[in-house]
Amino acid sequence: MPGLTDATRGRILFGGDYNPEQWPEEVWQEDVRLMKEAGVNSVTVGVFSWAELEPTPGAREFGWLDRLMDLMHENGIGVVLATPTASPPPWMGRLHPETLPRDEDGRIEWWGGRQHFAHSSAVYRRYAAAITEDLAARYGGHPALTMWHINNEYCTYDWGDEAATAFRRWLQGRYGTLDALNTAWGTAFWSQGYDDWEGILPPRHAHYMNNPTQVLDFKRFTSDALMECFVAERDIVARHTPNIPVTSNFMPFWQGQDAWAWAGREDVVSVDSYPDPRDPLGGQYGALIHDMTRSQARGGPWMVMEQAAGPVNWRGVNHPKPPGLNRLWSLQAVARGADAVCYFQWRQSRQGAEKFHSGMVSHAGERGRTFQEVKRIGAELALLSEKVADTRVTGADVAVLLDWNAWWASGQDGRLSGEVDYPAVVRAWHRALWEANVTASFAHPEHDLSAYKLVVLPQLYLLTDTAIDNLVAYVRGGGTVVSGFLTGVADQDDRVRQGGMDERLRKLFGIRTLHEWWPLDADEKVGVEGFRGTLWSEEIEAADEAYAVIPYKGGELDGLPAVLRKGRAWYLSTLPEPAALWPLLAGIAEDAGVRPALDHLPAGVEAVRRGELLFLLHHGRDTVTVPVPGRHRDLLTGEDVVDAVELGRYGAAVLEAAP
Ligand code: GAL
């Protein structure tokens, strides 16, 4: 399988989405000059160029792309060439309305924006395959080509008729018989029993709550249907260029794609990373995105395909990045394993819906602060390239378990609390590890966990039998596990397990009876000895061999276990406030033999080890002194560091042990 090194030739990729079709060709010359000044070595081209390439059905306009590819090659800039299939030209919707997706109310998503393609439309797929084939045939041998980028952030749901047909086919593949489907979906409830496959629909707008397993399967199906589109295009380009790696960029924490399943089908995993510069925990969110993507790449290369050099334009209020933040977050991506740091987009647009979204070259041009910072980042990444090439993050001994099926099933109508948001719960637990300066990985609950010293389940409402057996075996084999509330409640069909929680898990954690769930209101806190819990609490009776490490204090659950422990298995029936979760988790991690990346870090400083390098990243604004025992050299400044390094606002150091 081709890897990223084939594309990077040993360099960290630095660059961004480049949309030359938005500019007169004189500007291209200017672009190249500035790219070289900034150390840009990679551009992603063609993401939304379908109407330029195929202005009328079947036509091909490759002239501009030929010139662009040549120009990039002449200037030593590699091209990640995108298939343009995320945004069909207007003629497609006009001539073939069935290529337009429908929402759950049956409304058409019209052209005029983007991503208006019906994933299961045969006509869409035919046109997508044809343009992909011709691009691959024409540019497969071009020396500028370094990688294929398929589509963009696959994200369309479709409740239309062709999607309904494909959904039925998918269900036949999963269940075989209608009886099996009726059983899995529990259709005895509310008179939903199906007598014919033709009667089954995507979960369209209904009078009252849809069948939850139908909704769950529709989400599974959507991820698979989009993946079919991806795989079809991937196979076309791979046939032409077996040695050129293929990627498709993820949105992190996007419901529509089961990233575990997708990542296994990509040569290089890539992600679009947009933490909010105003978020005081933006650095933590970035770390989570990197940890998640690195883990999805499962030891393989991965890249930040997009980030913003300044503001985005899709939040309520869009803030610029203060000086230094772009550099800090770029270095953080490298620290956490990225082999590419790229942006959306190279040059800020003057027209279109994203004209207020930043670019590496902002409206202020080359004298603007944004470009000046980009230049600095490019120069520093070039300094680091050789040292980080082919290295991996080390010391990530904790696995945070993450699963799309659990997310899909837990977030539905009819649940006990609308306040429990799965990504927010995962983020709270990752934050605790980040604050404890423990480098986390993510894993699927059915992965082999034996390499990890500690396994953390922020919440996995749905767990398959295989996953449960995996966890039990992990603890039996000497592993330590910590689980958050509302875990192991449902089986793969979203059927509640006997007793409200799987019996094997109740045994594992020492829970005799789970009497009731006690969800909390938005601002409500529950008293626990020594701290307060948020979001949720549970009325649990511990089994004899378990003990309540920390009881609830006051309220209805007074004296009952909030935190339970049985041997190496811990269960937290509430979500402790942040100030309590991290010391609790840090203590469990330490007992499990997990070491932080560096001891005695000042608050706000993140330490990560990649290969032989120690990255120090300061997310705060006040100057701090970080103790680093021994002699090191800071690769960014070339200076020696003896026993301590000082970091100013958003400062960073990349230390290598001095000989
Ligand atoms: C991404 C997308 C880009 C651009 C960017 C703006 O979701 O892939 O094309 O729209 O967001 O932040």
From TrEMBL:
Sites where the protein binds substrate: 114, 152, 314
Taxonomy, superkingdom: Bacteria
InterPro entries reported in the protein's UniProt record: Beta_galactosidase_C, Beta_galactosidase_Trimer, Class_I_gatase-like, GH, Glyco_hydro_42, Glyco_hydro_42_N, Glyco_hydro_b
SUPFAM superfamilies: (Trans)glycosidases (SSF51445), Class I glutamine amidotransferase-like (SSF52317)
Domain named Beta-galactosidase trimerisation: residues: 396-594
Top EC class, one word: hydrolase
Domain annotation Glycoside hydrolase family 42 N-terminal: ranges: 17-382
A molecular-function term among this protein's GO annotations: beta-galactosidase activity
GO cellular component: beta-galactosidase complex
EC number: 3.2.1.23
Key words of the record: Glycosidase, Hydrolase
Any GO BP annotation: galactose metabolic process
All residue ranges annotated as the Beta-galactosidase C-terminal domain in the record: 604-656
Active-site residues, record numbering mapped to chain: 153 (proton donor), 306 (nucleophile)
Reactions mediated catalytically: Hydrolysis of terminal non-reducing beta-D-galactose residues in beta-D-galactosides
Family stated for the protein in its record: Belongs to the glycosyl hydrolase 42 family.
UniProt name for this protein: Beta-galactosidase
Species, as recorded: Streptomyces avermitilis
